[in-house]
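On clarity, I found the account of how folds are encoded harder to follow than it need be. For illustration, here is how one protein appears when written out as sequence plus structure tokens:

:::
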Amino acid sequence: MTIDLLNIARTGVMASQSQLGVTGNNIANVNTEGYHRQVVNQTTYESQRLGNSFYGTGAYVASVKRVYNEYAARELRLGVTAQAEAQTSYNKMSELDQLFSQVGQAIPNSLNDLFAGINNLADLPADLGIRGSVLTSASQMAASVNQMQAQLHGQMTQTNDQIEAITDRINEISKELANINQELMKTGGADNQLLDKQDALINELSEFAQVNVIPLETGAKSIMLGGAVMLVSGEVAMTMGTSVGDPYPDELKLSATSGFQSLNINPSRLGGQLGALYDFRDNNLIPAGNELGQLALGIADAFNTAQAQGFDMNGNVGQDLFLEINDPLMSNGRVGEFSTNAGSANLRVNIDDVQALTGSAYELTFTAPGTYELKDLDSGNITPLTLSGTELSGGAGFSIHLDSGAFADGDRFEIRPTAGAAAGLQVVMTDPKGIAAAAPKITAASGNSGNTQVQITAITDRSAANFPGYGSELTFSINTAANTYDVTAADGTALATGVSYTPPSISAFGFTMDVSSTAAATDSFTLDLSFAPGDNSNAIAMAKLSDSKLMNGGKSTLVDVFENTKQDVGSHTKAAEVRVGSADAIYQQAFSRMESESGVNLDEEAANLLRFQQSYQASARIMQTAQQIFDTLFSSVR
């Protein structure tokens, strides 16, 4: 046996040709996104023994592999997820911030215009033109609140559309990955092009949610979302989708389906764009709407209460300026019933004290036989509620009423006391004469306990005998323990003694008043219900509402409620912007590391191209030399 020089040259030429082909492919794909640089694993043939020595027999290409680092790839996927989540949060918060800064600015402006109109009314309380202007300002203010709520609803719709679009794309990717897995299982995971496509799809999937990749022995990869949902298992793909929210239908929930099995997904564990959209919806958009509803309730209650404390131009007790705060149009959405409830309880939430409202949402839970607990979803604080008849009391400014049906053990309800109010706010007064600029004069005796308050609720007959007026005031001495009262005229004449009444109303001498008491006492009040068209005392009191701390337990004015929400949105937007910068830096670091290992370096490939070209030419030269040797050998034996 002799050394096969021609065969050695042939293997060298073929190996160099393969090297040139792979290098050329790297150069051609330098700008191909997701492409991983490929390298040739070249090795030598087994040596051959001649005499006492071993001689090589050439080289061959054992495999063509792509340069891939699983740790770098995982770091990149995490970077992609964090960047997508931060950018989505910032984009959504920026939109909300612009709403409050631009569209929302009409709310404090229109509220200030309303108070300016009331100040003008205080100067000329009998001017019908000014009164009409006040009603117009009130309508414009209500419209600005309605418009802001409509914009927030539009944000909810847009967010739902984005969630649905992402789930559709996730389903497309999962099907493609399942098909790729099927092909890779046929080749044992050796098709570099399919592997690159697989990684590109996984990286795209990482934008939507956090991805965990589980390599399989077959060459395929199983994919988990958020560490909880097996999206792709081998060649089987799960389908993601959305369904109506629970307990609020327009707040879509996320689910995954495989065959006939369906699983609800907790979006807070997903991260990425999906996690950011749900976080924005639940922790920013919905609370902003609740706080806007709190403002609407505050406006309606403040002005309606002020109206009830005065007289209109006809001398009657002022009627509501805005829709009553517990009207069905103002209370739509206060109660959400979970679909898992076994009971038939039909609940209604009634606002009892607007000042005590916080804008929070709550979860009501019933545990048999009689435990009712209210959990503040913002703070986590749990408050036990007391059932009295059909009323559950103990909420912060509101009570829950069981209108029909019954609770079952484990029943849950979400309570949003301020929901719906911003959409329902509207002016119900149509006659400008109805604005109550005048006010009755009620003087409490200096020795009163302070436990009792009275309010005029109706004027039925100003011509009635002994109707209290200027110079003919009446003094009512009210015993709230016995529910009786005495009446004394201005000259000291006793007009009534020990008259019984049914709480809370006393009707006498052409008017009706309500009596409220926190403890039993006997207190006296002197009433002057005279009326003059030029009286502006109640208009002055109404104008002072602009600076009165009526909200959040006496800590905020009406405008403060809106401005606090606006500041919270702005603060969250700034924080989201900072997170974008941090996430970008992390992503760029991971991307650079990935590129340094798997990316194509043109300088390196150019050097390889020259090196493999030279080895190809050298092998070809060996082949030529071998041919010349054979020719010489044949010539010598002719």
Remarks:
- The mean pLDDT is 92.
- The chain has ten helices and 28 strands.
- The CA atoms of residues 330 and 355 lie 17 Å apart.
- Residues 128-187 form the longest helix (60 residues).
